[in-house]
Amino acid sequence: MRLPIDTQTVNFVSAGPPEPVIDFDTKQQRVDPTGQPLFNVHLFALGGGSRDQIRVRVIGEPKGLGDYTPVRVTSLMASTWEVGDKHGVSFRAERIEATAKAATA
To answer: Which residue range(s) make up the domain with 45?
Structure first.
């Protein structure tokens, strides 16, 4: 099942720079059907009295992300999955973009 998420009521900050999605078998970066590279972005989602960390897959490398960078997430979708006796939720977005510069430690 695919469920859209209203990102207008949630604040997001990155938990570090984007990471390439690596194919388990070939050890090469995965691409979408058009040949664009896939990246995972770890985000902190804050809103509605809760805080969660999620990993969001996006096409193309988001620029300017680092630790605690405020970001805008466009067209966030949650999808349930099941493989054998394992199940979970994965997240995908059309775009993730920095709204401010990355914080420095």
So the answer is: 2-98
**19 occurs within a structural domain:** yes
CATH number for the domain spanning 30: value is 2.40.50
Angle of CA points 61, 67, 37, to nearest 5°: 15
Residue 103 lies in a domain: no
Beta strands 95-98 and 67-74: pairing type?
A: antiparallel
* Number of domains, the chain: 1
Q: How many CB atoms lie within 10 A of CB 38?
A: 19
By CB atoms closer than 10 A (0-12, 13-18, 19+), residue 69 is buried
- Could you tell me the sign of the dihedral formed by the alpha carbons of 28, 30, 34, 36, in that order? negative
Q: Residue 39 domain-assigned?
A: yes
- Residue-wise pLDDT for 43-101, tens only, equals 999 988 889 999 999 999 999 999 999 999 999 999 999 999 999 999 999 999 999 77
Q: Is 39 exposed, middle or buried (CB count within 10 Å of its CB: 0-12, 13-18, 19+)?
A: buried
